[in-house]
Amino acid sequence: MKYDVYGVGNAIVDIVTEVDIDFFERNNVEKGVMTLVDEKRQLELMKVIDMKRSKMSGGGSAGNTVVAINQLGGKSFYSCLVAHDDLGHFFLMDLERNGVHTNLKYADCPPGHTGRCLVMTSPDAQRTMNTFLGVSSFLAPQHLDEEAIRNSHYLYLEGYLVSSPKGLDAMKEAKKIAEQHNVKVALTFSDPSMTKYFSRQMEEIVGASVDLLFCNEEEAMIFTGTDFISDAREKLRGVAKRFAITLGANGALIFDGDTYIEIEPYKVRAVDTNGAGDMFAGAFLFGITHQHSYAEAGKLASLASSRVVTQWGPRMQPEDVRKVLGDLIS
After folding, report:
1. Under DSSP, is residue 128 helix (H, G, I), strand (E, B) or coil?
2. What pLDDT, in 10s, does the model give residues 250-281?
């Protein structure tokens, strides 16, 4: 089978909850970024939040992206690792419901705990994540499917994987396979913490270049060591053939290899920014693999990501995602 996108990333079940603005200082949590924690620390935080008001959903940065691609009408494949537990079964069934193919079978999953992410959304709509990777930290090259990569238009790598030595090896091997078969490579930085604390590992993945890079303005400036987005975008041209920089409420900036394209924002009332970047990448990748120009794909991605921030959780219902396409045409 041919795929639009082959994703490699963490398999995480999101637990989305609301907290007050003082929660972070009271509980010594760094606000606005993703922090890796052990299971003990995560359980401590879960004891001091209102779990009855929390919502559980399939997550993971690249996982959200490949699901969005399928919901828009594309075809994707996902390599990840879950444990043989209830959350692992939940995650794989969620992929199946959304038509995402994977080479991982529940019966073959290892013992242990499936990764989970405590997503704390504050009144300013900002999301703060504390993630326990569980068995996802053992994702390695042997979990890849070379045939599926070879039959994909794009390989999509999740930046969060650079925090794990085995995950980094999996990214390198997947990129090597893609390049051998002339499959384009896309990378997302995923989170400012990845470019801040794992810059060397991220540079190893970027290597000579990637075909398409996704990042937000903070990640772009941290990675390039600049203070202004105008300087960051010029430096990014040296590491990515094309890129998309999301600018929050100000839209996005696309570089198509020749020209900068400014993408207008869609003004909405944001309640939860979790998953906005993942949705942007999914809609953009769907666009460029379905004969849309970079400008058209950017407009679709901007509209789709504006819709996901108006609800709780990183994923939309399939019918709501498909409605984005209809609204864009009309």
Report:
1. strand
2. 999 999 999 999 999 998 888 777 789 999 99
